[in-house]
Amino acid sequence: MHPSSTLATVHAGARRLAPLVLASLALLAALLLIRAPLAAAQAGVDSEAAPTSDQIASATSYLEGRRGRTAFAVIDSAGQLSGVRTDDRFVTASVVKAMLLVQYLRKVDRTDRDLTGAERRLLAPMIQVSSNEAATAIWRRVGDAGLRRLAAVVGMTNFVVGPGYIGSCRCSARAWARAQITAGDQARLFYELDRVLPERFRDYAKKLLETVVPAQSWGIPQAARPAGWRVFFKVGLRATGLGGLIHQAARLERDDSVVAIAVLTDGDPSYAYGKRTVREVTDRLVGGGFVDPLGARR
């Protein structure tokens, strides 16, 4: 065959294939356009932190309808803090005992030794049954200065240990109970627990915080444990010049997710009322109504 005839045949074949190639390319482009929104939507779901903005809004709406002074803070699984009145100070009650635990363990760790039996017999009741006597014994070794040092390490910018009379609650307190806390700062502490606890004492401290007696396991653990969360927490309860005070702060772990929650209340008409506030806020954030970012109800 003459070269010119061969070239003509090739060109003719190319012209016949061109529409097929163009049609294939058009079909591929259409498929990509269909898949792109689905992929983007899936990426958006996968990247959304828990709890979601809708869940935080639900907790906020509920809390705003409660009586007395209230605040809550949540650090979501992406490490972002949000909440209501997160920087308002409240007298601590027993919530500060978690700080005493962490700071005492940091102090012992600097001496490169294990805990003695006597130390364990103070730390365990201080956390698990909220013994005030044990807390006072540990505070005498840690001091206000130690609490302030821990606050600085964590980044608790609103923590103070002030005078014996606290105007915000119209009440008096002594020793460690003079501390004033915020929901935001307590959420930061519990979110950072693994970082600020000495490695040699981390499992020990978290076991104490996870095994608080059932009588004090209301609120956050009551709402979060049925949804599959491990809960490490501390409670606070006392009477003030405003009424009942109910606090709770916690670290929640599930699979690879970590969430921290703190709910503070004062001026509750009853302790039961305050405990319900804590439970209902938590339930709206991560409890029975919690839907994880992939849409699976837990």
Please describe what this structure looks like.
The chain is α+β, with helices and mostly antiparallel strands and 298 residues long. It has one domain (52-286): DD-peptidase/beta-lactamase superfamily (Beta-lactamase). Helices cover 51% and strands 19% of the residues. The chain has helices spanning 3-47, 53-64, 97-109, 117-128, 132-154, 183-191, 193-196, 199-210, 220-224, 271-286, and strands at residues 69-75, 81-84, 90-91, 160-161, 165-166, 171-172, 179-181, 230-240, 243-254, 257-268. The strands form three sheets. It has a five-stranded antiparallel sheet with strand order 2-1-10-9-8. A three-stranded antiparallel sheet has the order 3-7-4. The protein has a two-stranded antiparallel sheet with strand order 5-6. A hairpin with a 2-residue loop joins strand 9 (243-254) and strand 10. The radius of gyration is 28 Å and the shape is globular.
Quick take:
The protein has helices at 3-47, 53-64, 97-109, 117-128, 132-154, 183-191, 193-196, 199-210, 220-224, 271-286, and strands at residues 69-75, 81-84, 90-91, 160-161, 165-166, 171-172, 179-181, 230-240, 243-254, 257-268.
